[in-house]
Structures are given as C-alpha cells and as structure tokens.
Design goal:
With 217 residues, the chain is α/β, with parallel strands linked by helices. The protein has a single domain, classed as 3-Layer(aba) Sandwich (Aminopeptidase), CATH 3.40.630. Helix content is 42%, strand content 17%. The chain has an eight-stranded mixed sheet, with helices on one face. Helix 6 links the parallel strand 6 and strand 7. Helix 6 packs across helix 7. The longest helix has 23 residues.
Length: 217
C-alpha cells in the first residue's frame, strides 16, 4: 500500500477546517509586538501539543514531533508559515499520521546544533507553489529528487491537481541541506484563509510522503 492511499485526505481537510478559527487567531496573534512572538509560539506549540519545545541560540523557538529516522525541518519566519507548520503538527497528532520521521517546526537557525535535518521545507509565501532550492551538492534540486517528489505527491494527493514547480533561489535556508519552499500567500500580500488551511494540510501530509519516497530509493 502506498503512502498516498493511507492518507485520509477527507478527514484531513475536515479537521483543518474545524481548526480554522484557531489557526486564523494564532496567525493574527503573531502580528503583535516582536518581544511577545517567541512566547506566543511556545505557548501554542505546547498546547498543540508537540513532544518537545526548545529555545534556540538566537531566542528562536522550535518544536518536535516524533522520533523516527528521517529528520525533517519545517522552517518558518513569518506568521502565515508559522501558523501552517504548527497546526500541521496538530493534524498529524490528531489523525495519527506518524511514520519513521522526526519533525521539527519553527524559527530554526542552522546554529541550533540539536537539530540536524536531512531536508528543509521553508514555509514562506510561494502562492502554494513548490520552489526547488539548494541540493546537498549539485546546486538546485531537480524534480527527480525525493524531496521534490514527496512535495509533488503530497500536493497531488491532497488537491487532485498538479502543482506549479520551479527553481526558487533565496538567501533563506541552510547551505548544503536539500530544501524546498512552499507556503501560503504571495510576496507581501496577506495570506488568504484558504491558503492557511491548505498549507497546514500540505505540511501535515509531507513527512509520511517523504519517508515513503526515501524507502523507494
């Protein structure tokens, strides 16, 4: 049985919409004073709940779910991306969508030595398109990379449409770690509620898809 078949997309969509009010409220809360944002993220991560919440070297907050072989980092530095990745953790927990992965989400800095991801999903505004970033050695990723394949599979399984995939250079992200970008909103425009809910579902589905792709290598 493939990973795509074991994801109950109907239940995932229903649950994401049930949490719409909480997701939108958390998103708006992150527009508050900068000194309160880290504490608000920690508060929400503990409520979701994640298994571990840590403060990084720069005062950033990251949270962990699972303890499997494949370590995935979902890095968010804006309010919409943070709302998506944190509530993805809640969706994974509520629906039991665990696998052989360790998922970290939050304001990750490569200086945080306690997180050693094998891949990074950068939760930033892409208008729900998949941006291929840096590979470990070869520069930009290609669509044949398991990280990109997992993102495409997650998108197609959830939304029954092919995603827009393109190269996406950016100064964000850790050098030398395979990374993609995917997130709600576009540029500096406010993220639509539909984008917040869809991105949370994507982030929730991605880890099991990624593990499945790695098994096929």
């Amino acid at each position: 049985m493939t990973t795509a078949r074991v994801i109950d997309t109907h239940r995932l969509s229903i649950l994401a919409h049930e949490y719409e009010r909480e997701i939108v409220q958390f998103f708006h809360d992150l527009a508050g004073p900068a000194e309160r944002i880290a504490e608000r993220i920690r508060q929400e991560a503990e409520r979701v709940p994640f298994e571990e919440v840590r403060t990084g070297s720069t005062g950033n907050v990251v949270a962990r779910l699972g303890a499997g072989k494949h370590t995935i980092m979902m890095e968010a530095h804006n309010a919409a991306g943070m709302a998506g990745v944190l509530y993805a953790g809640k969706l994974i927990h509520e629906l039991g969508m665990y696998g052989d992965f360790t998922l970290w989400v939050g304001q990750w800095s490569p200086q945080d030595s306690f997180v050693r991801p094998e891949c990074v999903v950068i939760a930033e505004p892409t208008n729900l398109c998949i941006g291929m970033r840096e590979g470990a050695l070869e520069g930009f990723l290609s669509e044949a990379d398991p990280l990109v394949q997992a993102a495409i599979a997650a998108y197609e399984t959830l939304f029954e449409l092919p995603p827009i995939v393109s190269r996406s250079p950016s100064p964000k992200g850790a050098i030398g770690i395979p990374a993609i970008a995917f997130g709600p909103g576009e540029n500096q425009e406010p993220a639509p509620v539909r984008h917040l809910l869809n991105s949370a579902q994507f982030y929730a589905a991605f880890p099991v898809m990624y593990v499945d792709m790695m098994k096929q290598r």
